[in-house]
């Protein structure tokens, strides 16, 4: 058998079948959109960030069907090193079970959408309104203030 008769196949060039299916990266923005830096002088996010958070909330609501709030932090509860972590809660505030891929994907998407925030403290993304706020602010709003 000569080299011309053999099929040219390389394991380095071929993608594994399980990797060909879905791309788990955050989807790219629509073709006509332009990314602008909309942060104000005081560090608050502008209207562009609100649109980004609303779109992100829409995508995460599709990925985690019954969730209303996703809490994202840079530290997993039982670990001492930084690791993206997310928890999802339904409309009654009950914790929803997420698998590892959902937790990591949701946390990475939210953190990458708002890199200017201080991720040493957890943040809540409201999937209904698309607002992202520190968790402490959410508790203060429920309790009536500090």
What does this structure look like?
- It is a single chain.
- By secondary structure, this protein is of the alpha+beta class.
- It has a domain at 69-146.
- The chain has helices spanning 17-20, 47-63, 100-113, 135-143; strands spanning 69-75, 82-89, 95-96, 123-126, 132-134.
- A hairpin with a 5-residue loop joins strand 4 and strand 5 (132-134).
- The longest helix has 17 residues, at 47-63.
- The chain is globular and about 40 Å long.
- The termini are far apart.
- Residues 36-45 have low confidence and may be disordered.
Concise structural overview:
The chain has 146 residues and is of the alpha+beta class. It contains 4 helices and 5 strands.
Order of helices and strands: HHEEEHEEH
* Coarse morphology: globular
Number of strands: 5
Strand content: 15-25%
| Backbone structural class | alpha+beta
Oligomer state of the chains in this structure:
single chain
What does the average pLDDT come to?
75
Radius of gyration: 20 Å
Give the fraction of residues assigned to helices: 25-40%
Report the major sheet. 5 strands, antiparallel
Can you count the helices? 4
Distance between the termini: 81 Å
Taking strands numbered 1, 2, ... along the chain, how are they ordered across the largest sheet? 3-2-1-4-5
- Sequence stretches where pLDDT stays below 50 over 5 or more residues: 36-45
């Amino acid at each position: 058998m000569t080299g011309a008769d053999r099929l040219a196949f390389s394991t380095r060039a071929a993608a594994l079948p399980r990797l060909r299916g879905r791309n788990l990266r955050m989807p790219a923005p629509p073709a006509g959109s332009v990314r602008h830096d909309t942060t104000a002088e005081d560090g608050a996010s502008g209207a562009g960030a609100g649109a980004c958070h609303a779109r992100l909330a829409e995508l995460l609501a599709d990925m985690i069907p019954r969730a209303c709030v996703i809490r994202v932090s840079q530290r997993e509860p039982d670990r001492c090193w930084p690791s993206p972590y997310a928890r999802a809660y339904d409309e009654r505030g009950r914790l929803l079970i997420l698998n590892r891929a959902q937790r990591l994907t949701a946390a990475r998407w939210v953190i990458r959408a708002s890199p200017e925030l201080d991720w040493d403290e957890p943040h809540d993304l409201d999937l209904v309104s698309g607002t992202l706020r520190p968790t402490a602010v959410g508790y203060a709003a429920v309790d009536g203030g500090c």
